[in-house]
Amino acid sequence: MHRKRTIRGVAILIVTVGIAFTAFVSRDQWLSWLRSESPTAVAADHTTPIEDAKVLRLSPQARKNFGLVSKPVTMQTYWRTIQVPGVIVDRPGLSDRGVTSPAVGVVTQVHAFAGDTVKPGEKLFTLRLFSEYLQNTQSELFKATRETELIKEERKRIEGLATSGTIAGSRIIELDQRILRQDGLIQAYRQDLLTRGLAPAQIAQISAGSFVSTIDVVAPPSISDVDQQHDDQPVAFTDGDDLVYEVQELKAELGQQVQAGQLLSVLSNHRLLYIEGHAFKQEAPLLEQAAQNGWSIDVEFAEDDSRHWPPLEQTFQIRHLANTIDPASRTFDFFISLTNQSRAYEKDGKTFVVWRLRPGQRVRLHIPVEQFENVIVLPTAALVREGPEAYVFSQNGDLFNRIPVHVLHEDRLNVVLANDGSVGLGSYLAQGSGASLNRVLKAQAASGMRADVHVHADGTTHAPH
Predict the structure, then answer these.
(1) Tally: H helices and E strands in the chain
(2) Which residues contact 281 (CB under 8 A, 6 or more apart)?
(3) pTM for the complete prediction?
(4) Phi, psi dihedral angles at 257 (to 5 degrees)
């Protein structure tokens, strides 16, 4: 009895182990019966992404959202440049002019104030003269004029006697020589008074015996003629250039006593300026090369409202290089001639001038250093990089094909591609949004549906013809 029980227990154990082994071996089948996912979900989990996607599809609306523009490929010549900061500065000797007092005196009237515009010859100040030298010059001019008149009267009186032989003819010769000496003195005095700021009418008044006690200080002659001799290119006049000067600063006040040569005011004319570039010493050979060859330089003006001004139709070239280095910044300067633009407006009966470009305004200079010929030039935004690879996108209708390219040069604005046959002539390349197109391409590839595959109504698919 006990033996039968033992045999039955062993048999049950063997059956249990067999069932467990069978369940373990067939677990894939019976576990699938317990899952709740539908067959559609299971099939979706097994969708595999496209590993080497090259083509993406964009609808017209998507292209508009990107602001995407495509242009045909053309071969160009491109200059590689270096960027150098700069600033607009006055041109010494031409932009600013100081007005000084011609003699010792007191300022009795100020005719032009800071911000006012004046033409050459217009009044700036009126001075009451205290100059002993100027008073003596006026007195000597009057004396010389009167002495000349007396000598001429005497000559006229004895001229008939000399002709008849009553007196010697040498007397006439002596009087003529005295007249010549007096004329020389008169000319010297007149020139001295002219340099002191007196007008020809005032000098004629002094010669007649009416001395001048006040003097008008006027704006100096126009520098337009001087500009043509110093500028490197023709000057284009604008509406405000006939105003010539703007009073930049007053240096004398009403009732102030001033000395001869003392600065009274500073006048400015910002039509001719310099662009002062700041470069490091290692860049000097590149700048020297550009200056010697007369290469054109591109200039970006900071805070320039070009929409309300006419184009700056001038060629920018390096005029000269400085031969000293700034000890603080360790840079050296170079200079480019700049012709400014201006406008004038009327207010309260006065004319005021506004300049387009002002001293102190920052600029960015693009100095040409190397020329690339027969290359493809695109905006920098059209390029996308993935490690060592670089790509652009060629458009064919709604499809955009990603093309690997060889980049020769890249800067802040443009990218230069080698003409190695990777991009065919006449192909339409996207001019921007390269990174965005690449992200869309990866997203479409991850979905498992190739963008270059057509799906028909019957469910069949094929690649484009």
Answers:
(1) 10, 26
(2) 325, 330, 331, 332
(3) 0.64
(4) -85, 130
**Whole-number Cα distances in Å, 457 to 40, 43, 453, 454, 460:** 21, 21, 13, 10, 7
| Per-residue tens of pLDDT for the chain, all 465 residues | 555 566 666 667 676 766 766 666 566 665 555 554 444 444 444 455 555 667 888 888 888 888 888 888 888 889 888 899 999 999 988 888 899 998 888 999 999 998 888 888 889 999 988 877 888 888 888 888 888 888 888 878 777 666 666 666 677 778 888 888 988 898 898 888 888 777 788 888 888 888 888 888 888 887 554 444 444 443 333 444 465 788 999 999 999 999 888 999 999 989 899 999 999 989 999 999 999 999 999 999 988 888 889 888 889 999 999 999 888 888 999 999 999 998 888 888 888 888 999 999 999 999 998 888 889 999 998 899 988 889 999 988 888 889 999 999 888 888 999 988 888 887 889 888 888 888 888 888 777 655 554 434 333 444 444
Q: What is the dihedral of CA 172, 174, 180, 186, to 10 degrees?
A: -110
* Residue type present at position 23: A
